[in-house]
Amino acid sequence: MNKETRIVLTAALVFFFLANIAFSQTPPNKEKQIDFYVRSFISATQIAGLAIAVVENDQITIAKAYGVKNLETMEPVTTKSIFHMASVSKTFAATAIMQLVEKGKIILDDPLIQYLPYFRLNDPRYKDITIRQMLSHTSGIPDEDDYEWEKPQFDDGAAERYVRSLVDEKMVATPGSKEWHYSNMAYDILADVIAKVSRTTFEDYVKKNILEPLDMKESDFLLARIKPELRTTPHVWYRNILPKAYPIYPYNRRHAPSSTLNSNILEMCNWATANMNRGAFKGKIILKESSYSAMFAPHAKIDENQSMGLGWFLGSYRGLKMISHAGGDEGYRSYLAMFPEKSLAVLFVGNSDYFSRTELLNGMTDVMLGLAPKPIKARISLVLAHTIISRDVQKAIEQYRDLKKNRPDAYDFSEGELCNLGFKLLNSNRLDEAVKIVNLNLEFFPVSAETYWLLAEVYQAKGLKELAIENYKKALEISPNHDKAKEALLKLKK
């Protein structure tokens, strides 16, 4: 038995043991309830590593770490382990801008080109883009579609080069029209704004003016300053049948403000505390009250339930005001949510990118509010993936039928689960197994356009053009606006 097989079988045994524990007793206090809930969530989703925390009335009342830094080395995560924080980084970039506003070095409604005269997009409207619009995702700047994690840049000139590289990008809306379009690109441009205005690098500015005053000593936007022994490893699932450690760490200085903060759960509690206290932390003030009034005010409507402030999402949960930001990049997921009416913050970060941030946040928040969280269901796709690896696809199909009949409430049998597994089998070139799994999904979800599209993709990979065309057509019969099926069918017919 090789090393990889041993890892897979060990993970499978641990997962099935945890997933089948009969949870019959409610722990007596919130800390134990949170621990109970999180362990249940981890067993159902197979997160590699996770760190969580709760801040109440300026005190860290819960801080715990679970799992491992790397599924191969099995080194445990601690509360001091460093994670990639992904888009939660944007809240720091927004704060840096507001500090410079307070110093009179930036005016929010000034055009961007006043600070970066070489900024250009392939649309004359770029001249009207303001700093305020960039912070609230109403600038019309498009989103970034390739972070180039596999080709990182590390030097001080990365930010300006990124801005100069955008000349062919087209805008997605008129600046200031109140159309909300989430834009990582807009935030990445702000690194160069901060650098030019402050006459230092974005990373050095944030280190000196935000991280150091908040005692975030191990945190940094500059990866080179992070101690190697504290780092965690990203884990992905979409490239494999089962979750695995991924060798490429999500870092590139071109995208620092939107994504590259590295921090641990304890120091992120300091960040939560400072923001709940509107800039105050242990006698230090990082921002004035007036700046928070602007940041926490709605500047754009996202949907019926959520608005956008300057760097922060504004919504509600269980009738409580919620100020938050989530993060997700290759191999990592994070969330920071603050409930000012309760002086409560809930936060977590994991080194896996295949779990639901919203489900975990809601469950933890419910416990802290004295409510019963929704039952956690194990992902049937993960269960079947283990069975395919350790046994075969036919045993997995038998297992699916048995569990769906006898334990329907214990597992997630939603339409997307088998599609998810089929897609991973396709990516792994296990095409015959993919056909069987996707057809199993059609048996239970016969009017699923996405499933027919996936089956067509598998047949196309197998070189079976006529079967691919047939199933693309079935997808379009169910969903005439299925763009992926339309595009694929046109290419095949040509």
Mind explaining what this structure looks like?
The protein is of the alpha+beta class. The chain contains 18 helices and 16 strands. The strands form five sheets. An eight-stranded antiparallel sheet has the order 2-1-14-13-12-11-10-9, with helices on both faces. A two-stranded antiparallel ribbon has the order 3-6. A hairpin with a 7-residue loop joins strand 4 and strand 5 (244-245). The radius of gyration is 24 Å and the shape is globular. The protein starts with a helix and ends with a helix. The model is unreliable at 1-27 (pLDDT under 50).
Question: Which features characterize this protein?
Answer:
18 helices; Serine Threonine Protein Phosphatase 5, Tetratricopeptide repeat; 494 residues; eight-stranded antiparallel sheet; alpha+beta; 2 domains; two-stranded antiparallel ribbon
